[in-house]
Amino acid sequence: MLNFIVIVFLSYLVGSIPTSIIISKLVRGIDIRDHGSGNAGGSNVFRVLGWKFGVLTILLDATKGAIAVVLIARLYLGSFPFANATPFDDFTLVQIIAGIAAVLGHIWTVFAGFKGGKGIATALGFLITIITVDMLLALAVFIAVVSFSKYISLGSITAALSIPVIMIIRENIFHAHIQSYGTILPFAIAIAVLVLYTHRANVVRLLNGNENRISLSRTKK
Question: What is the DSSP-derived secondary structure letter of residue 131?
Answer without folding.
Answer: S
